[in-house]
Amino acid sequence: MATINTNAGAMVALQNLNSTNREMQEVQSRINTGLAVASAKDNGGVFAIAQKMRSDVNGYAAVGTSLDLAASTTDVALAAGEAISDLLVEMKEKALAAADSSLDTSSRAALNEDFKSLRDQIGTIVANAEFNGTNLINNSVTSISALANADGSNSIRISDENLSLGGGVVTLAATASFATAGDASTIVTTIETSLDNLNQSLARLGTGSKSLEVHKDFVGKLSDALEKGIGNLVDADLAKESARLQSLQVKQQLGVQALSIANSAPSTILGYFR
To answer: What is the pTM of this model?
Structure first.
């Protein structure tokens, strides 16, 4: 039936053209963003999973920062402990030389001055061995901790090692000195005990620093794996989208032609009245 009121062919052509235009908008969005799922409207389930994974990735970035801070604090404490160990070795040498009963008083006094200078240097090192305001060897904190997972429910704890003079590790008193061979001999024994204690403290600090380093590497690999997983879920295949765009452009042009032909159909009715 020929009619000018209803053009079914034009309706169909317009529907197909609108469908092609919507597909082109989708393809252009994917090309512009590089994402096949850029919002919940594209795919609600996949978008929700990707957002959860993005949250974990950002959380692991914070974990990495926390681990870096703890590792730096521990490394400063470790470096200070090693410097203290070297000083104790030198102090032992001075005290052992002063323990020689054949040594004259003036020579022993000179050794004692050197000894006290080294002793005071230990105090200076302990007081200044801090990072970001935290000192792990002066008994100002009981421990430090670093985040271990993205939700903050686990942590890695590094205990304080009090390396202050007269403390539990370095048992040598902050006022230690010698005036006689007997005093020097007693100090040698005290220093040997302190060195044994200090070696154990350094071992604990070294183990803690290593554990932080290992976990930082693991967190980095885990974050990379999550980012790869997010990409697999939401990234667009641009080679495929490029081919699809060209196809849709042809369909769009054909759709315009089809709509033009359908719209011209009612004009043939005029021929009936000539």
So the answer is: 0.79
